[in-house]
Task: structure prediction
Amino acid sequence: MLSRQDRIEKALHAMLPAPEIAPRRLHSAMRYAVLGGGKRVRPLLAYGAGELASAIPERIDFVAAAVEMIHAYSLVHDDMPEMDDDVLRRGRPTVHVEFDEATALLVGDSLQSLAFQMLSGHRLADDPRRQVEMIEMLARASGSRGMAGGQAIDLESTAKMLTVPELEFMHIHKTGALIRASVALGARCGDALTDAQLDQLDHFSKFIGLAFQVVDDVLDADSSTATLGKTAGKDASNNKPTYVSVLGLERARALAEDLRDDALRALDCLPDKGGHLRQLADFIVLRKF
Ligand code: GRG
Result:
């Protein structure tokens, strides 16, 4: 049996257009953006939630690949000079550096479309209404009321001192919405969970999404470019408000632990106490990159 990590690599490989298919440069750049490493946190969350719901693994593959495609698109656009202006991602030159800016824009656009093609072109749920609901969930999580909206708030926040609730609002959208959708969509590939259990999973994903961002801020402040595979210290050099700039390093670390504990508590009433999601919660908080 393939590990979850192998499953997602294989699925992404198969779902991305082959580099020999025209337009070859765009397809090569899409593969470069998606297949070049990455922790695959969002797909792993989708598998973890899908397993709890006794979903058919082939169904979860499409959801896991779709959320990773949306994530990869966001990274490609975020790295462009108009946004974060970065040259290093996943230990390699960013897409606009390796290819060019116009290609990077098109990579993001095409990955977003491909994600929705994966969710709409394959059977993911027995009830078609549930599948439409799932597609809508990903659309909301990615758009102006979700990730893209969070990015807009982030851009407006440069050089501002935010309060903790304001920071939280930004990150619930920018990072949290896609993490929440990854769990929710994975869980909806199966039907073994009650509505109350789905609600508990949603609590888990909200806590773990915020914990993910707090840890990201800590690592940016406290780790090296070589370890992270992306430019360290970017938040401070871009004058961005972060959990570290607002709370300080130690309190930010403690907050990440508290959020992890809240997330784990939310899993207690789920089958196998949340199974693989418990390990993922630890990985998200203890990770070094
Ligand atoms: C451009 C619409 C648009 C949105 C961009 C998510 C995002 C919004 C920007 C990424 C910038 C950033 C560093 C956000 C902080 C948290 C985050 C998403 C980190 C990167 O995700 P990881 O650590 O990356 O899961 P890998 O490479 O492991 O997949």
